[in-house]
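Supplementary Text 2. Reproducibility record for the structural model of the 134-residue chain.

All settings were left at their defaults, and a single model was retained for analysis rather than an ensemble. We include the record here because the model underlies the residue-level annotations in Supplementary Table 4.
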Amino acid sequence: MTTDPSPRPAFSNPHKQRRGLARLWHALRHSLAGLRAGWGEKAFRLEALLALVLLPLACWLGRSWAEAAVLAGSVVVVLVAELLNTAVESAIDRIGPQWHDLSKRAKDLGSAAVLLALLFCGAVWIAALVARLS
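Retained model, structure tokens:
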């Protein structure tokens, strides 16, 4: 008789039992709820509205599909970073309103990630504009 060496969690999440299309459907619903929650953040809303302008512009500005993909990808990276930053801030805020060094550090790291994404996006777009207009 063999025993299963893998530990069994005390709590079984019923969502983990779904398979196939049902699992994909539920994952999609959670993702859309996340986008709706992100839309409630001013920074994400501004970046999403800019993305509505920049994503079609990427197709015009890019001289190849690869250039257009890099331009569009740099915009998407900003949106992803902003959503992750919001997730970190929400988790920290759920813990409590009191000030703590680690909470500040987590929020600062999330903010730094957004800043780096914005700087990368700006650099990619400036380089593409210079190449296209020169």
